[in-house]
Design a protein that fits this description.
By secondary structure, the protein is an alpha+beta fold. It has two domains: about 5-85, Orthogonal Bundle (YggX-like), CATH 1.10.3880; about 90-150, SH3 type barrels (Roll). The protein has helices at about 30-40, 40-55, 65-80, and strands at about 5, 15, 95-100, 105-115, 115-120, 130-135, 140-145, 145-150. β1 (about 5) and β2 form a beta hairpin. α2 (about 40-55) packs across α3 (about 65-80). The radius of gyration is 16 Å and the shape is globular. The N and C termini lie far apart (about 40 Å). The model has no long low-confidence stretch (mean pLDDT about 90).
Length: about 150
Amino acid sequence: MTTDVKCIKCGEEKPGLAAPPFRPGTKLAPLGAEIQQKICAGCYKDWIAMSVKLVNELRLDTTDPRGQELWLKQMKIFLNLDESSDPWARHLDKRVVVETADGRSITATLIGADDHRLTFSDFDGPVPAGFEVGGNKGAGSLARDAIKTVEPAA
């Protein structure tokens, strides 16, 4: 049976998860309980879709501890569970317009954020010059200090 939660991702009162997403007794059980208490089922479903995209486009190896750490960090950012959350992370899995420090304007989908770079895919055209190409579906990343703004695309 599910109960309604005040979701910290979408800000709405909606049905939560019927069970925590991580098994009791595992090291992720406390995080699973937090997700069940704070995230609605719809937003968690959105994370699962974003997670698949993240793994595929960045060729993330979830059997590797570094891959697991990155996956968990991106999940916390996406679901707004990270207190020190990146202000640009609210745009994860959304079309954005990126204004670079050199004045270019680029439209793409933000698919990842770490301490040093933002990763995008689905560019309007080829991956622009200056972006580090990665992944298998035209993903590219740019150093944070080369980005002036990230805003929702119209």
